[in-house]
Design brief:
Blueprint lengths: L5 E4 L8 H13 L5 H19 L5 H16 L6 H10 L1 H7 L7 H10 L3 E6 L3 H10 L3 H4 L2 E3 H4 L6 H11 L6 E5 L2 H10 L3 E5 L12 E2 L5 H5 L1
Parallel strand pairs: 1-2, 1-4, 2-3, 4-5, 5-6
Protein name: Putative hydrolase of the HAD superfamily
InterPro entries: HAD-like_hydrolase, HAD-like_sf, HAD-SF_hydro_IA, HAD_sf
Pfam families: Hydrolase (PF00702)
Length: 227
């Protein structure tokens, strides 16, 4: 991939360990009230409501409220007003999630190696701008990785190819010279390719589609792949 001049990276699952953070957060939030049934309901609600948000069916705050509406009855709790749900999110799961943010150990070294090789980096991530920026600050990558472009700021969400094209325009990069690195095949890899970018799947857990050939298991492999 010698023509790559810019590497555009996803955040959750690539630079920050969102999966572990979410698991730690729901356990810290619910404590002894957490049962296998409740945990399964929470992550089913997360997947459903985030998918609806990506499709434009829910706003960012509403998908959070919807997740609580899905799970509170399983806990035997009443569903409050929107304001009450917002306060419950902020003091409960949301606060625990923020405390659980940590980056992957391979992220910083890989970004520095790319910079040393003359390759620019930037971030394109779904999510709200304030939260995604705060994540990068917390894990120590905000000043290292380059411009941060979020769905909240762009008004476009992956896998919409327009999100990738607008991101390239904002950073002044030709899509054909940009490589996108993400951990979700349909959302990241296929979305990026649909916009004319190169794309590689970061498959940390070994669940890549069998017909996908552009796969790495660690960001440590990325600098050599680009060179």
């Amino acid at each position: 991939m010698s023509d790559v001049r810019t590497v555009l990276l996803d955040l959750d699952g690539v630079l920050m360990d969102h999966t572990s953070a979410a698991r730690e957060a729901v356990r810290a939030w619910l404590g002894a009230r957490l049962t296998p049934e409740v945990e399964a309901a929470w992550f089913a609600a997360q997947d459903l409501r985030l998918a609806q948000w990506r499709a434009g069916g829910l706003g960012w705050e509403e998908q959070r409220r919807a997740r609580l509406r899905d799970v509170l009855p399983v806990l035997g709790e009443r569903i409050g007003t929107d304001d009450e749900l917002d306060a419950q999110w902020a003091s409960g799961y949301g606060a625990a999630y923020r405390r659980s943010w940590h980056g992957f150990e391979d992220a910083g070294p890989a970004i520095r190696a790319l910079h040393d090789a003359g390759v620019r980096t930037a971030v394109l991530t779904n999510g709200a701008e304030d939260q995604q920026t705060a994540k990068l600050r917390t894990i120590g990558l905000l000043d290292l990785v380059g411009p941060v472009l979020t769905a909240g700021a762009l008004g476009l969400r992956k896998p919409d190819p327009r999100a990738f094209l607008v991101a390239c325009e904002r950073i002044g990069a030709d899509p054909s010279a940009v490589l996108y690195v993400g951990d979700e095949h349909e959302v990241d890899v296929l979305g990026a390719r649909g916009a004319g970018l190169g794309a590689v799947l970061l498959d940390r857990d070994g669940t890549a589609p069998p017909d996908e050939t552009a796969v790495i298991r660690s960001l440590a492999e990325l600098p050599a792949l680009v060179r």
